[in-house]
Amino acid sequence: MNISRTEAEAALSDIEQAAARTCVQRSYRFAAPILILWGVIWVIGYAVLGLKPDRWWSLVWVPLDLIGIAGTLMVVRRSRGDASTRSTRRQNGFSPLHMLAIVFMLIASFVIFGPSKPAVYLAYPGLLCGFSYMMFGIARMPRLAWIGAAMCVLTLAGFFYAKDILAFWMAAIGGGGLILGGLWLRKL
User: Fold this and answer.
1) The pTM is what?
2) C-alpha distances in angstroms, 186 versus 8, 139, 149?
3) Which of 30, 93, 102, 104 has the most CB atoms lying inside 10 A of its own CB?
4) How many CB atoms lie within 10 A of CB 101?
Protein backbone atom coordinates (compact mmCIF):
# COMPACT_ATOMS: atom_id res chain seq x y z
CA MET A 1 0.00 0.00 0.00
CA ASN A 2 1.37 3.36 -1.02
CA ILE A 3 0.35 6.62 0.58
CA SER A 4 0.88 10.01 -0.89
CA ARG A 5 3.12 12.66 0.61
CA THR A 6 0.04 14.72 1.52
CA GLU A 7 -1.56 11.78 3.36
CA ALA A 8 1.69 11.12 5.24
CA GLU A 9 1.98 14.78 6.27
CA ALA A 10 -1.65 14.81 7.41
CA ALA A 11 -1.10 11.65 9.46
CA LEU A 12 2.02 13.12 11.09
CA SER A 13 0.14 16.32 11.84
CA ASP A 14 -2.66 14.33 13.51
CA ILE A 15 -0.09 12.45 15.59
CA GLU A 16 1.61 15.68 16.68
CA GLN A 17 -1.73 17.22 17.66
CA ALA A 18 -2.69 14.14 19.67
CA ALA A 19 0.69 14.17 21.42
CA ALA A 20 0.28 17.87 22.26
CA ARG A 21 -3.22 17.28 23.71
CA THR A 22 -1.87 14.38 25.78
CA CYS A 23 0.94 16.58 27.07
CA VAL A 24 -1.51 19.29 28.14
CA GLN A 25 -3.80 16.77 29.84
CA ARG A 26 -0.85 15.33 31.78
CA SER A 27 0.13 18.83 32.82
CA TYR A 28 -3.39 19.49 34.08
CA ARG A 29 -3.33 16.23 36.06
CA PHE A 30 0.04 17.22 37.52
CA ALA A 31 -1.18 20.72 38.47
CA ALA A 32 -4.56 19.61 39.90
CA PRO A 33 -3.40 18.22 43.28
CA ILE A 34 -1.10 21.22 43.77
CA LEU A 35 -3.99 23.65 43.20
CA ILE A 36 -6.23 21.67 45.56
CA LEU A 37 -3.52 21.55 48.26
CA TRP A 38 -2.87 25.28 48.08
CA GLY A 39 -6.59 25.97 47.92
CA VAL A 40 -7.11 24.18 51.23
CA ILE A 41 -4.15 26.06 52.72
CA TRP A 42 -5.59 29.38 51.53
CA VAL A 43 -9.04 28.61 52.93
CA ILE A 44 -7.54 27.78 56.34
CA GLY A 45 -5.03 30.64 56.32
CA TYR A 46 -7.35 33.40 55.19
CA ALA A 47 -10.18 32.22 57.43
CA VAL A 48 -7.85 32.38 60.45
CA LEU A 49 -6.61 35.80 59.29
CA GLY A 50 -10.20 37.01 59.28
CA LEU A 51 -10.54 35.96 62.91
CA LYS A 52 -7.16 37.08 64.30
CA PRO A 53 -5.46 40.48 64.50
CA ASP A 54 -2.75 41.13 61.91
CA ARG A 55 0.10 40.58 64.38
CA TRP A 56 -0.79 36.85 64.24
CA TRP A 57 -0.61 36.60 60.47
CA SER A 58 3.00 35.45 60.18
CA LEU A 59 2.36 32.83 62.86
CA VAL A 60 -0.49 31.50 60.72
CA TRP A 61 1.17 31.64 57.29
CA VAL A 62 4.67 30.37 58.05
CA PRO A 63 3.54 26.88 59.13
CA LEU A 64 0.88 26.73 56.41
CA ASP A 65 3.40 27.73 53.74
CA LEU A 66 5.84 25.10 55.00
CA ILE A 67 3.09 22.47 54.81
CA GLY A 68 2.21 23.66 51.29
CA ILE A 69 5.83 23.58 50.12
CA ALA A 70 6.35 20.10 51.60
CA GLY A 71 3.11 18.86 50.00
CA THR A 72 4.04 20.36 46.64
CA LEU A 73 7.47 18.74 46.79
CA MET A 74 5.79 15.40 47.55
CA VAL A 75 3.60 15.76 44.45
CA VAL A 76 6.67 16.66 42.37
CA ARG A 77 8.70 13.78 43.81
CA ARG A 78 5.85 11.33 43.20
CA SER A 79 5.62 12.45 39.60
CA ARG A 80 9.40 12.25 39.11
CA GLY A 81 9.23 8.52 38.67
CA ASP A 82 6.84 8.97 35.77
CA ALA A 83 8.97 9.79 32.70
CA SER A 84 5.94 11.08 30.78
CA THR A 85 5.14 13.60 33.53
CA ARG A 86 8.78 14.73 33.63
CA SER A 87 8.86 15.39 29.90
CA THR A 88 5.42 17.03 30.08
CA ARG A 89 6.62 19.49 32.74
CA ARG A 90 9.66 20.30 30.60
CA GLN A 91 7.57 20.81 27.45
CA ASN A 92 5.11 23.10 29.21
CA GLY A 93 7.89 25.08 30.85
CA PHE A 94 6.93 24.22 34.45
CA SER A 95 9.44 23.29 37.10
CA PRO A 96 9.64 23.58 40.89
CA LEU A 97 12.04 26.47 40.28
CA HIS A 98 9.12 28.46 38.88
CA MET A 99 7.29 28.04 42.17
CA LEU A 100 10.37 29.12 44.14
CA ALA A 101 10.75 32.17 41.89
CA ILE A 102 7.13 33.16 42.56
CA VAL A 103 7.58 32.75 46.33
CA PHE A 104 10.79 34.80 46.15
CA MET A 105 8.99 37.55 44.20
CA LEU A 106 6.17 37.63 46.75
CA ILE A 107 8.54 37.92 49.71
CA ALA A 108 10.82 40.42 47.96
CA SER A 109 7.86 42.61 47.03
CA PHE A 110 6.65 42.74 50.63
CA VAL A 111 10.16 43.58 51.85
CA ILE A 112 10.72 46.33 49.30
CA PHE A 113 7.28 47.93 49.30
CA GLY A 114 6.54 47.27 52.96
CA PRO A 115 2.78 47.68 52.64
CA SER A 116 1.27 49.18 55.74
CA LYS A 117 -2.37 48.39 55.08
CA PRO A 118 -3.58 44.88 55.92
CA ALA A 119 -5.73 44.77 52.76
CA VAL A 120 -2.57 44.89 50.63
CA TYR A 121 -1.13 41.89 52.47
CA LEU A 122 -4.39 40.04 51.95
CA ALA A 123 -4.82 40.82 48.25
CA TYR A 124 -1.30 40.79 46.83
CA PRO A 125 -0.72 37.00 47.05
CA GLY A 126 -3.96 36.41 45.14
CA LEU A 127 -2.88 38.81 42.39
CA LEU A 128 0.62 37.35 42.13
CA CYS A 129 -0.68 33.79 42.15
CA GLY A 130 -3.37 34.57 39.58
CA PHE A 131 -0.90 36.37 37.33
CA SER A 132 1.52 33.44 37.58
CA TYR A 133 -1.18 30.97 36.57
CA MET A 134 -2.09 33.19 33.63
CA MET A 135 1.54 33.25 32.49
CA PHE A 136 1.93 29.47 32.80
CA GLY A 137 -1.37 28.97 31.02
CA ILE A 138 -1.06 31.36 28.11
CA ALA A 139 1.52 29.29 26.24
CA ARG A 140 -0.05 25.83 26.36
CA MET A 141 -2.50 25.39 29.21
CA PRO A 142 -5.46 27.73 28.59
CA ARG A 143 -7.52 26.40 31.51
CA LEU A 144 -4.78 27.43 33.90
CA ALA A 145 -4.83 30.90 32.32
CA TRP A 146 -8.60 31.16 32.94
CA ILE A 147 -8.15 30.12 36.59
CA GLY A 148 -5.47 32.80 37.01
CA ALA A 149 -7.54 35.48 35.30
CA ALA A 150 -10.52 34.71 37.53
CA MET A 151 -8.30 34.91 40.63
CA CYS A 152 -6.94 38.32 39.59
CA VAL A 153 -10.33 39.82 38.75
CA LEU A 154 -12.03 38.47 41.88
CA THR A 155 -9.11 39.54 44.09
CA LEU A 156 -9.35 43.09 42.74
CA ALA A 157 -13.12 43.07 43.22
CA GLY A 158 -12.66 42.04 46.85
CA PHE A 159 -9.90 44.60 47.40
CA PHE A 160 -12.06 47.46 46.16
CA TYR A 161 -15.55 46.37 47.21
CA ALA A 162 -15.22 43.95 50.13
CA LYS A 163 -12.40 45.34 52.28
CA ASP A 164 -14.33 44.73 55.50
CA ILE A 165 -14.45 40.99 54.79
CA LEU A 166 -11.39 40.71 52.53
CA ALA A 167 -9.78 37.84 54.48
CA PHE A 168 -12.95 35.77 54.18
CA TRP A 169 -13.35 36.87 50.55
CA MET A 170 -9.83 35.60 49.79
CA ALA A 171 -10.55 32.35 51.63
CA ALA A 172 -13.61 31.84 49.46
CA ILE A 173 -12.42 33.04 46.06
CA GLY A 174 -8.70 32.39 46.45
CA GLY A 175 -8.79 29.10 48.31
CA GLY A 176 -12.13 27.97 46.97
CA GLY A 177 -11.15 29.01 43.47
CA LEU A 178 -7.92 27.00 43.62
CA ILE A 179 -9.81 23.95 44.89
CA LEU A 180 -12.45 24.25 42.16
CA GLY A 181 -9.76 24.86 39.56
CA GLY A 182 -7.85 21.78 40.71
CA LEU A 183 -11.01 19.67 40.55
CA TRP A 184 -11.74 21.03 37.07
CA LEU A 185 -8.23 20.14 35.88
CA ARG A 186 -8.37 16.72 37.52
CA LYS A 187 -11.45 15.74 35.51
CA LEU A 188 -9.49 15.90 32.27
Assistant:
1) 0.76
2) 34, 20, 19
3) 30
4) 12
